[in-house]
């Protein structure tokens, strides 16, 4: 039995997959502690881990980031990304480090396996000299000579033109990210660490082991992928061991007995203004011969007024029951939901607006498993056209099935636990 500390940022899309890995490690007999926000401690304890809540770190309500981080009030697009990274992720890292060092003083761990955006994981590993792994609930797309700079939502372009484009954009990206590099250095100093430890965007990841969701087939081809990266497929693929399935809504029989295709519509749990995607998609599909199943997420208020007759709505949905019955997903590009859809061979229409979502949308389109709407706020006509294209052309479902087979073969939660145990066995 080993002592394992896992870390998870207190977001639904981060805590759930990391909790699934923690549950698998507990099942194997390890003593697992979980450092996360207070709102997610109970969920980890329900699967047998011991919760370690944020104390020095400024715990926050993911329904109202601005209450704790005022610069995020009313922000979308690039400014939201910048303030997310600088204030929430980099800025809280020294306090996370203090919490983790206190937990290590109480009981040293054998390995630290953490959410890359919980940057205190890296700092605590350096302070304690611990073995550490990145356990990523979000896409881990690293820079490299064969791929465009991450974060711009670009697809590869071959030849001299592509190399010139990528070289120029890499220089521009370095300049744009310079404020984050400075914030990172300040954060390291505040955590009692010397300068170093990489820079944006590699600073989030362990050089020893990066457990990544998705698959090589869902990334661009490259010859320089670090040996530390291990793709494991879907980190929610735990057979229900972590108790993560949402309850069935009262209208579930409509899904079970649907005589028309089921289309799942989701805007995720981060940007939750329904005017961005949900409302235009409902308008786009109102006259289509489909059953539209909407997952609002736990941060979106109920939709007011009458809904089209072909629409069913719930806050959270049981994906393990829904996705096998789904013909197509329309999504804002949250990577966890995209991977789950593809694991069930479901093609996609993706409206990726900001954060990592333009990158997700671009890769889905590049694989042929869906259409990239190239905006997070599409018009109903664009959604309708994309839906009809994906629904009518078999190539999209065939590409999704190809990726689904690859994702299922990678092992999911069990493979992630294997990787963490492998790090324990290294000299």
TrEMBL record:
Q: Which residues form the Erythromycin biosynthesis protein CIII-like C-terminal domain?
A: 282-407
Signal peptide region: none
Gene3D superfamilies xref list: Glycogen Phosphorylase B (3.40.50.2000)
Q: Which Pfam families match?
A: EryCIII-like_C
- Which PANTHER family does the record match to this protein? STEROL 3-BETA-GLUCOSYLTRANSFERASE, STEROL 3-BETA-GLUCOSYLTRANSFERASE UGT80A2
Put simply, this protein is called Glycosyltransferase
Q: Which organism is it from?
A: Georgenia alba
């Amino acid at each position: 039995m080993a002592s394992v500390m896992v870390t998870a940022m207190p977001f639904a899309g981060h805590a759930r997959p990391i909790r699934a890995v923690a549950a698998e490690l507990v099942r194997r007999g390890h003593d697992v502690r979980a450092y996360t926000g207070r709102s997610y401690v109970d969920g980890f304890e329900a699967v047998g881990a011991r919760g370690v809540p944020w104390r020095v770190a400024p715990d926050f309500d993911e329904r109202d980031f601005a209450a704790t981080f005022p610069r995020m009030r009313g922000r979308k697009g690039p400014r939201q990304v910048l303030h997310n990274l600088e204030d929430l992720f980099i800025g809280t890292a020294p306090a996370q480090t203090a919490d983790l060092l206190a937990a290590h003083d109480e009981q040293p761990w054998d390995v630290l396996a953490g959410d890359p955006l919980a940057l205190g994981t890296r700092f605590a590993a350096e302070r304690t000299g611990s073995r550490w792994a990145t356990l990523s609930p979000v896409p881990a797309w690293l820079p490299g000579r064969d791929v465009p700079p991450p974060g711009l939502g670009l697809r590869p372009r071959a030849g001299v033109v592509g190399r010139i484009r990528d070289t120029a954009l890499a220089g521009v990206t370095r300049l744009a990210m310079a404020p984050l590099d400075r914030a990172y250095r300040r954060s390291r100093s505040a955590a009692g660490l010397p300068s170093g430890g990489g820079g944006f965007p590699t600073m989030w990841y362990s050089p020893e082991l990066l457990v990544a969701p998705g698959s090589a087939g869902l990334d661009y081809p490259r010859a320089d992928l670090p040996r530390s990266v291990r793709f494991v497929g879907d980190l929610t693929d735990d057979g229900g061991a972590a108790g993560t399935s949402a309850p069935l809504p009262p209208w579930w029989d409509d899904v079970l007995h649907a005589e028309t295709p089921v289309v799942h519509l989701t805007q995720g749990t981060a940007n939750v203004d329904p005017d961005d995607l949900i409302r235009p998609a409902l308008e786009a599909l109102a006259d289509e011969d489909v059953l539209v199943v909407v997952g609002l997420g736990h941060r979106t208020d109920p939709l007011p007024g009458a809904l089209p007759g072909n629409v069913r709505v719930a806050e959270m949905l049981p994906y393990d029951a829904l996705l096998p019955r789904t013909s197509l997903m329309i999504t804002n590009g949250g990577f966890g939901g995209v991977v789950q859809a593809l694991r069930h061979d479901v093609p996609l229409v993706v409206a990726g607006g900001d954060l990592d979502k333009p990158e997700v949308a671009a890769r889905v389109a590049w694989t042929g498993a869906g259409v990239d709407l190239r905006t997070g706020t599409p018009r109903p006509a664009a959604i309708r056209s994309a839906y009809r294209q994906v629904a009518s052309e078999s190539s999209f479902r065939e590409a999704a099935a190809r990726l689904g087979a690859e994702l299922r073969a990678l092992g999911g939660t069990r493979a992630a636990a294997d990787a963490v145990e492998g790090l324990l066995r290294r000299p």
